[in-house]
Amino acid sequence: MVKFKKYSETVEFHSPKNQFKKTKINLEIREDPLTGFRSIINEYLVNKRGLLYPDTDYEYLDYIGDRSKKFCFMCDHRLEKMTPYYPEDFLEQGRLKYQDAVLFPNLYPLSKFHAVIRLTSDHFKKLGEINSKMVFNGLKLAFDFLKKSFDYDKRYNYPTINANFMFPSGASATHPHFQIMNFLVPSTFHQLLLDRSKEYYEKYGSCYFIDLIKKEKELNKRYIGEIGDGVWISAYSPMGRNEVQIIWPKKENFFHFTEKDIKDLSEGLEKLFIYFHSKKISTYNFSLLSGPLNEKAPYFRCIMKIVNRQNVVKHHRTDDYFLQKILKNELSEITPEDLAKEIREIF
Ligand SMILES: [Zn+2]
Predict the structure, then answer these.
(1) Which tens digits make up the pLDDT trace of 178-217?
(2) pLDDT (tens digit per residue) in 156-168
(3) What distance in angstroms lies between residue 68's CA and the mean position of ligand 1's atoms?
(4) Do 34 and 107 reside in the same domain of the chain?
(5) pTM, whole model, 2 decimals?
(6) Which of 186, 190, 208, 242 could be stapled to 200 by a disulfide with Cβ–Cβ 3.0 to 4.6 Å?
(7) Which domain holds residue 33?
(8) Using CA atoms, how far apart are residues 255 and 296, in angstroms rounded to an integer?
């Protein structure tokens, strides 16, 4: 069954920030019920937020927007000349288009089916300006491409839809875009979710993701809300800053997504981006994962994870250090319960 494990401890020292009086700091080490991934919640870190996650420098962000426009390959007048297109036997048109969203192959692919989707013809958008229409256009192409890739080669049945937004999140292009990958061998994390949820199903005879939703709704601490079939929850043990996860209890894989589901997701993301922007946050990563396309997977449900990264500031410090990169623990300066409470207000 779904268990929210945690360990607590207290640190004591004489703090220069408190006239060297004895100071107590409470830590909570949490464990994700499925993967076991641990995170450390330390609310005292809120005092270090200026160093950990300084607010976005919007003047600098505008400068980045202007500068990157001069050589952007996703802007209209360069896209046709500077981006690759697929061979005719796979995609007759070479590139896929929907309104002003365009899909083309990644010039430096990491899978046989690895595409980039330009969301809009506008070169530069701040996080709070990415609207549901742009997201919808991009996601529509993503689902279409993933279906085509599976039809073309049925060995590729681990599809994902991903995004980096702004350079501190890993994006090498500023122009708003998504990255679509269909894998022959699933990513390490995707495999872990599939394996653990299958073990859970065999042990308890029920689907972990459905049990998780039920439990989170009962507790009503991290449950944010629902839009259509998607259930929005803040992660008990986050893998990144401000992690929100969206789970679709009726969808084992991407083939079950309708146009209405894509629209609902796009509307939810617009709301979430507005919330992030209101906190002077300028970056995110997300991944949306599917169950395998070539078999029934009653143990799995489609899940999306979205996290913030370091904000756009001059000489930014990475938010991944030994703790995340090697030890695979995350830290958080706010509790997932407080995060859910704040996001719920804009839902
Ligand atoms: Zn551009």
Answers:
(1) 999 999 999 999 999 999 999 999 999 999 999 999 999 9
(2) 999 999 999 999 9
(3) 7
(4) no
(5) 0.97
(6) 208
(7) 5-49
(8) 12
